[in-house]
Amino acid sequence: MLWPRTEVRRPTLASVSSPNSGKTDSRQALYDRFADRVKIDPQFTRKVVSYQGNRKTPGLRWMKYKEGFSRTLVDYLLDEYQPKQVLDPFAGIGTTALTAAGRGVEATGIEIMPVGVLVGTGIAAAANGTSSMVFEKAIKAIRSRIASQRAAAPEHAFPHVAITASAFSVEAERDIGKAREFIAGMEDGATQKLINLGCMSVLETASYTRKDGQYLRWDTRSGRKLRAKMEKGPIPCFSDALEQRLWEMARDLDPIKQMFGGGHPDFRAGSSLDLLKTLPEAAFDMVITSPPYANRYDYTRTYALELAWLGLDRDAFGKLRQSLLSATVENRSKVESLRTEYGDRPKTLEHALALYRRQEALHEVLHILRVNAGELGNRHVIRLLEGYFLEMAVIVTELGRNIRSGGSVIMVNDNVQYHGEEIPVDFILSDFAEQCGFVCTDIWTLARGKGNASQQMGRFGRREIRKCVYRWERTG
Ligand SMILES: C[S@@+](CC[C@H](N)C(=O)[O-])C[C@H]1O[C@@H](n2cnc3c(N)ncnc32)[C@H](O)[C@@H]1O
Question: Does 278 lie in the same domain as 254?
Answer without folding.
Answer: no
